[in-house]
Specification:
The chain is an alpha+beta fold and 261 residues long. Helices cover 25% and strands 22% of the residues. The protein folds into two domains: 98 residues, no CATH class; 109 residues, Cathepsin B, Chain A. The chain contains eight helices and twelve strands. The longest helix has 13 residues. It starts with 12 loop residues before the first strand and ends in a 20-residue tail after the last strand.
Length: 261
C-alpha cells in the first residue's frame, strides 16, 4: 500500500480583494518556476496541485538516484534522466533543479519534441490521469464560471486559467486599487485561491492567480493577480478544473526502479 494522501490545504478565501494583502504562502505555494520551454500547460496545473495537496510536487518523485528518477504521472510511473541544471528548464525560484524539473523532464520523455503548445487538459491528464473540464468565461457566464472555480477549490480540486492567443501582452485595470495588471496571451495561470463577494454587493468576488513564469523578484504583488468575473471575460480566459489528486503511490511497489548507470 502507498502513503495516504496528505491533508489538503484549507482553501484560500479572503473577504477583501487587494492583491497586496496576499500572504507569501499563496503566491509562493510551490517553489516552481517555469523555464524557457512553453510548458505553462504543465507548470500551472503542477502549482494548482500543490495548492490542493501540500507536498504534491515532491510526492510525484517516487525514487531517484544520481542520474535517474521515477516520476509518478498519469496512470503509470515514468523513468527519466535527471538534468544536470535547470538553466534551460523549469525548476526552483533560484534556478536550481527540483521536483518541477524532474516532472518536466518526464513529460519530455513521454512527449519528445511535442512538449510545447498543449492545453491544460494535457497537463491535468499527465499529472492526475484525467483531463478535467473547461468553462469559458464568456459574457453572461463568467460569474457562473467563477463560482464553479471557487467551489472546485473549496472541494480540493486544482484549477487553472488560460488566455487565448493574441499578438502581444495587454493590461487590465485592477478595479480595487487602480493598478495595471499585465496579462500574457496564450498562457496558463495557476488559480491559487478566491475572494468572497462583499455583503450587499452584486460583485461575485474574484480569483487569485499565480503566473508560473516568475519575474525573478519575490514581491507578492508581482507574482499574484486578482481578477473579477468581468476581467476574466475581458482577458478571454477559460477556466480548467482538474480532478482531485489520487492517493500517493510513493513508497509503494511501482514495478519500476531507477538504477544507477
Amino acid at each position: 500500500m502507498g502513503d495516504e494522501m496528505p491533508t489538503a490545504h484549507k482553501p484560500v478565501v479572503y473577504p477583501t480583494a487587494n492583491m497586496l494583502d496576499f500572504p507569501a504562502s499563496v503566491t509562493q505555494c510551490a517553489d516552481v518556476r517555469q523555464g524557457p520551454l512553453g510548458t505553462c500547460w504543465l507548470m500551472a496545473p503542477l502549482i494548482a496541485g500543490e495548492v490542493t495537496v501540500s507536498g504534491f510536487c515532491d510526492r510525484l518523485i517516487l525514487h531517484s538516484t544520481g542520474t535517474l528518477a521515477v516520476v509518478d504521472v498519469g496512470s503509470a510511473p515514468v523513468t527519466t534522466n535527471i538534468p544536470a541544471h535547470a538553466h534551460d528548464r523549469s525548476g526552483s525560484r533560484d534556478g536550481t533543479v527540483n521536483s518541477a524539473t524532474l516532472i518536466e523532464a518526464a513529460a519530455q520523455t513521454v512527449l519528445g519534441s511535442r512538449l510545447e503548445g498543449h492545453l491544460p487538459f494535457k497537463g491535468f491528464q499527465f499529472l492526475f490521469g484525467s483531463p478535467g473540464a473547461a468553462i469559458p468565461a464568456l459574457p453572461g457566464l463568467a460569474r457562473a464560471a467563477l463560482r464553479a472555480a471557487a467551489h472546485a477549490l473549496d472541494s480540493g480540486r486544482p484549477v487553472v486559467a488560460a488566455t487565448l492567443p493574441r499578438r502581444r501582452s495587454f493590461t487590465l485595470a485592477d478595479e480595487h486599487n487602480g493598478r495595471q495588471v499585465r496579462i500574457t496571451p496564450n498562457h496558463v495561470y495557476a488559480v491559487v485561491g478566491h475572494t468572497q463577494s462583499k455583503p450587499g454587493s452584486d460583485c461575485s468576488g474574484g480569483l487569485l492567480m499565480r503566473n508560473p513564469v516568475l519575474t525573478g523578484r519575490t514581491d507578492i504583488d508581482v507574482d499574484a493577480l486578482h481578477l473579477s468575473a468581468d476581467q476574466l471575460t475581458e482577458a478571454t480566459m477559460t477556466l480548467f478544473i482538474g480532478p482531485k489528486p489520487a492517493p500517493s503511490r510513493k513508497g509503494a511497489n511501482t514495478g519500476q526502479r531507477a538504477e544507477p548507470q
